[in-house]
Automatic annotation (TrEMBL):
tRNA processing as UniProt keyword: no
Keyword GTP-binding: no
CDD domains membership: AdoMet_MTases
SUPFAM superfamilies with a match to the protein in the record: S-adenosyl-L-methionine-dependent methyltransferases
UniProt-listed GO biological process terms: methylation
Organism: Nocardioides mesophilus
Domain (Methyltransferase): residue spans on this chain: 38-133
Record's protein name: Methyltransferase domain-containing protein
InterPro entries with a match to the protein in the record: Methyltransf_25 (IPR041698), SAM-dependent_MTases_sf (IPR029063)
């Protein structure tokens, strides 16, 4: 899907994603000391706004103007919106370049791109970090197509934790977590009326060491 496709998808419904943060973003990043964060492929801004609530100064990057505008509106009506710091940046994550000041956290949540583009996006995110900064990636795992539920049905835009680490070959970092994780999907999300099903995601959390 390109920027126009995502604009149409975001424009077609009030919220494509939940208003709150992704469950893994919240559970894995809640304990980090706030600093500067970049949310690459921020979409409607749910994770960016949650990070701002935790005290982060956030740069939210996405190629969908509609998604970013929905994020801006959500921040504007937030009870603490005037005190939250989110800079909404319209850019393709493959073309975005950070400024001279590095980030303490780079987040990529459910970015759906082919393997060659994934390599570029992961390296962009990693090089945006200061030494000691955290890279956090969560995505639909390749195995979700045959073993899980929901998510993209195109295997070319699915990947594993190992694929993310391979994109950083030659870089220096400490892996804190890199594995497949399970996510419970309720019946309301649409999978044939079953009470719940399991989706599988790839999760990577690492710290840049140099």
């Amino acid at each position: 899907m390109d920027a126009r496709d995502w604009d149409e998808r975001y424009a077609g419904t009030e919220m494509v994603w939940s208003a709150g943060p992704n469950q893994f973003v919240a559970s894995e990043l809640a304990g980090l000391r706030p600093g500067r964060a970049v949310d690459l492929a921020a979409g409607e801004g749910r994770n960016a706004i949650w990070l701002a609530e935790q005290g982060w100064e956030v740069t939210a990057v996405d190629f969908s103007l509609i998604g970013l505008e929905k994020g801006r509106r959500a921040l504007a009506v937030h009870p603490a919106g005037a005190d939250l710091h989110v800079d909404w940046v319209h850019s393709d994550v493959l073309e975005w370049t950070p400024g001279p000041v590095g980030y303490d956290l780079a987040l990529m949540a459910y970015l759906q791109i082919p393997a060659d583009q994934l390599h570029t996006a992961v390296r962009h995110a990693f090089t945006a970090l200061v030494p000691g900064g955290t890279l956090f990636v969560v995505a639909h795992d390749s195995t979700n197509l045959t073993e899980g539920t929901g998510g993209p049905q195109d295997p070319d835009v699915l990947y594993t934790a190992e694929d993310v680490l391979a994109a950083l070959d030659g870089e220096r970092f400490d892996v804190e977590r890199a594995e497949r994780v399970a996510r419970t999907v309720p019946a309301a999300d649409g999978h044939g009326g079953e009470p719940e099903r399991t989706a599988y995601d790839a999760l990577v959390r690492l710290v840049r060491t140099a």
